[in-house]
Write a structure and sequence with these properties.
The chain is of the alpha/beta class and about 450 residues long. The protein is built from 15 helices and 15 strands.
Length: about 450
């Protein structure tokens, strides 16, 4: 074993596994340079090709990045150390505005839906060999998607948005391919892309979604796939507007071979109309999650897309979990058909909190984003210091490092837990924690 690095083994798989263990335990830190290939081969007493194979495995798994003669380094956010670890522990007595969870008071009770699903299963149990998608759920999903302008396509049911995105990426791409993703964007997706051995290409956005010029640049740099958040973008709250959707469709039509994935995890908590991009390219997928509106533990999302994409997703799903539990599917049908969520009311509740916090921050000279959803994105000059000072003040917020690649520092504030009396104290704390900064507005 190399004491300095914690690397051992004589086979490529063993060497790769030891590096992953060292990264996971913190012996190898993010950004740390690995031993040169030939040097490690000599120290381990193996052929350099063996170490080369191990490094390729680690690169494909998203653990390390290789840069020719500059060597190989542990990725800033290796797949074995997810961005969820980039968080501050929340001490007792500190209010949690960091987790990104919905307001429990706005989630519908699940007891009745699950009881109805269980009764239906007792009457007619789902056995092997039956269709993976509940027919009623498929009918309701198709109708809702069509009403929102999403093109007709077959339907699959997956275990949440990220599961659907992963399955679509794996169905079309191979290790080394590039994927254009929003920056700042969903931390879990920023982890997933390198974990699949893919290369992330950041694209900037504003409150109306990805910027057309940024998308065009990412595609010109070789991105073979594009992931766009339709509404309630995490962490900025951006929502694709009709005008932006038209501009993005024009960009995509010039690149017909690109894979498009749209994530509508904000469905049910946002009353802004959907402006889908699907139809601008041949290969596409649209994922609609139930987590934010009905409860994160439901772990269910509807996926549609072109026939080839959905067929590949269903085929691979059959070889793994088989299907998403029909008990959960039936429970979702019950929730949908009984109107368990008042979308307008939920959207209005989150909107009032977001707008109140943004307004209070603006009054204190701070810019902030939050067009839809449950989060507010606040640029700050010193992200680490701001998070620490806010903790000291009794408020836990999410560090922007969990959500960004090339984007400047910021913090994410989740408004779900805020009441009317919390707005001014939170705004005061954020303004104080941000500290003096060039360009800060003072009235």
């Amino acid at each position: 074993m190399l004491g300095e690095y914690g690397i051992e083994g004589r086979r490529a798989t063993d060497i790769a596994a030891s590096v992953e263990r060292a990264v996971g335990s913190g012996v190898l830190a993010p950004g740390q340079l690995l031993p040169p290939l030939r040097e490690l081969a000599v120290q381990l007493g193996v052929n350099p090709n063996t170490v080369g194979a191990a490094y390729r495995v680690l690169r494909d798994r998203g653990v390390i990045a290789t840069d020719g003669r500059r060597g190989s380094r542990v990725r800033p956010r290796p797949a074995s150390t997810g961005r969820e670890s980039v968080r501050a522990d929340i001490p007792a007595g500190v209010r949690d505005l960091a987790s990104g969870s919905p307001d429990r008071a706005l989630l519908p009770p699940l007891a009745g839906a699950l009881a109805a699903a269980a009764a239906r299963s007792d009457a007619r149990a789902v056995l092997y060999g039956q269709a993976g998608v509940d027919p009623e759920l498929e009918r309701l999903a198709r109708a809702a998607l069509a009403a929102d302008g999403v093109p007709q396509g077959p339907v699959a049911v997956v275990s949440g948005s990220l599961d659907g995105i992963e399955r679509v990426l794996a169905a079309h791409l191979k290790p080394g391919d590039a994927v254009a993703i929003e920056d700042p964007g969903w931390g879990a997706l920023l982890d997933l892309v390198p974990a699949l051995g893919l290369r992330a290409v950041p694209m900037g956005l504003d409150e109306e979604g990805p910027l057309p010029g940024e998308v065009a640049r990412a595609l010109s740099e070789g991105a073979r796939a594009l992931v766009v958040t339709a509404r309630a973008q995490n962490p900025t709250g951006a929502a694709v507007s009709p005008a932006r959707a038209g501009a993005l469709r024009d960009v995509l039509r010039a690149r017909p071979g690109v894979l498009l994935i749209e994530d509508d995890h904000g469905h049910g908590i946002v009353d802004l109309p959907l402006s889908p991009l699907a139809g601008a390219v041949d290969a596409w997928a649209f994922v609609r999650s139930t987590s934010k509106a009905y409860g994160p533990d439901l772990r269910l999302a509807v996926l549609t897309g072109d026939a080839v994409t959905v067929d590949r997703v269903l085929g691979r799903q059959r070889l793994g979990p088989g299907w998403v539990s029909h008990l959960l599917q039936s429970a979702v049908v019950h929730l949908w058909t009984t109107g368990a969520v008042d979308v307008s009311g939920v959207s209005l509740s989150y909107g009032r909190r977001r707008e109140a916090l943004i307004g209070a921050l603006n009054e204190r000279g701070l810019d902030a984003w939050g067009r839809s959803g449950m989060n507010v994105w606040v640029p700050v000059p010193d992200e680490t210091g701001a998070v620490a000072r806010l903790l000291h003040s009794g408020w836990a917020v999410a560090p922007g490092a969990r959500f960004r690649m090339a984007a400047p520092p910021a913090v994410r504030v989740t408004v779900s837990a805020l009441g009317p009396g919390d707005i001014a104290p939170v705004a005061d704390a954020v303004a104080s924690a941000a500290g003096p900064a060039p360009g800060r507005r003072y009235d």
